[in-house]
Fold this protein.
Amino acid sequence: MTQHDPVRVAINGYGVIGKRVATAVLAQKDMRLAGVVDIATDWRLRPLEEQGIDLYAASSEHAQTMRGAGFTIAGTLDALLGQVDVVVDCTPKRIAAQNAEIYRANGRKFIVHGGEKHDVTGHSFVAEVSFDSAAGRAATRVVSCNTTSIVRTLTALKRAGLLKRARGTLLRRATDPWESHLGGIMNTLVPEPDIPSHQGPDAQSVDPQLDVVTMAVKVPQTLAHLHYWSVLLTRNASKEEVLDAFRASSRIALIRAGDGLAAINTVKELMADLGRPHDNLYEVALWEDMLKVEGDELFYAYMVDNQAIVIPDTIDAIRALTGLARTAEDSIAQTNETLGIRAAFC
Amino acid sequence: MTQHDPVRVAINGYGVIGKRVATAVLAQKDMRLAGVVDIATDWRLRPLEEQGIDLYAASSEHAQTMRGAGFTIAGTLDALLGQVDVVVDCTPKRIAAQNAEIYRANGRKFIVHGGEKHDVTGHSFVAEVSFDSAAGRAATRVVSCNTTSIVRTLTALKRAGLLKRARGTLLRRATDPWESHLGGIMNTLVPEPDIPSHQGPDAQSVDPQLDVVTMAVKVPQTLAHLHYWSVLLTRNASKEEVLDAFRASSRIALIRAGDGLAAINTVKELMADLGRPHDNLYEVALWEDMLKVEGDELFYAYMVDNQAIVIPDTIDAIRALTGLARTAEDSIAQTNETLGIRAAFC
């Protein structure tokens, strides 16, 4: 492969993340989607044929069952691995850790997601922070939705010299929309039993210097997570200084409650109105008019689309591992343009 | 009235708070419920007759309509005011402020609730903090559910010499259960547009020394509020010291997620199992096993039954205004015993 050939990408697992990664890869000029691997036999894989994406089976046993269910199967994972440069693993939690051995044995670069532990790849990825250290590596882990949002926002404050320590309360959506018929909580709130919750330490897997503590609670809705933060600044600051710090990140988009974006459902509706695939909100959507600075203390809230926020970072991770882009800035700029990522929605 | 005659209590407004106050007053040996005033003409007032509580109408016009709907009306508010020592106003927000003029003109002591502003009475009440300053006053305001919980918990830390400053995120239930058919939010989260939210300053109306900032968000459930707190302590402390501080308040009950009380619905079910009227949780239910101390920082979460938490304080406010009890301790002990208030549910 020369620098100018498109990188050949395989996606293993066509679920909530996998299908969004597929759409995003198709939008990149420097990548080619070689195929998608799955094991399902129902409606979830039907859109692949319409999109002209080759479907592979995880094993020959799965291939037989899937063919029996009427799907055209191009081959197995093993065969696909011979034709690609990098695998994006989007299988359910803990399965990717087993797959990692297969990718390694086949000498393929790979990306896992935030359900896996840092140790699975030894490197944790958020484009704005750890692109450079991922360059040329065999593998990285794109951290979870909540962790991605934490690293983006706290890094913005840190780069402005404003961050001392951050304490956050995370309201986690109960379940994903597509599987909410399988059961989620109803008319209650379920605190995560451990304080601090795991997202703080996970953010430190990307940047060990972050002084961050999180608490989390599951809430009965399916749309997105919502974060509330109390941050101690290094000094007294103005609201405008803080907003400028957030504006310096291209993946934090300011929104305004006063503009009618008063709740998470209205933000999702706007993403649909903008014609984004799956109504994806790739940005951290941070309420500009709610944000408050009192002396050296900062308070704010933002929304995290748990199904979409890691998609741009996954695209950047592909470029980092395969050398498609020399700098984080180059990769981020390409990804932002192809996905229509915005600095603000107001 | 001598010190030994029961205090005669009128309740104006038989809604979510009024009906609970009525039941609580009936359980007090030193009080007599003279009557309840309302304007409704439907099912909501039917339980009064079964309980043997006299029903009054807010005006003669209302009396006529209510009689037309089949209710036995003992008279009007004006008539009832001539027979009581104190009125507990439980009418909807802002109506109590107008009623206050009527109570004053009739020389009756009165209590309003947290929907009204501090200025309506010039005094804000939480039994453990402002009983003494309410003694003998003409009127006081029992603060809102959230504010009551904040004052109880932060006062406990303050009295142990541990409180420096507290920052909280409040998850507010969308609507009360009895009126959830009238519409509440569904499958979304609605941030309160102002940060800080009003509960912090409201807690300062009881104790101006509290360094407290709150943020609030409405969540799609009807059971209770849930608070998450990050507190900076005056010094490093142990978890046991902090728990002892909370245990020193008789109106904070420790619960354990590990005991199966892992969410707010299970706590409400326990209140029902204990046979409490309306499944009332009068205490702040604070998760002992989730609570975490890290150096001089404290993190914890608790549940607030917005319909019930102010009931014991309202009973104590009656005693404070009318001189029924000489000390906060005496009143609180009586109220706790009659309502079955507990130090822990584990």
User: Anything to note?
Assistant: Residues 136 and 323 of chain B are 6 Å apart (CA to CA). Chain B has twelve helices and 16 strands. The longest helix of chain B spans residues 145-159.
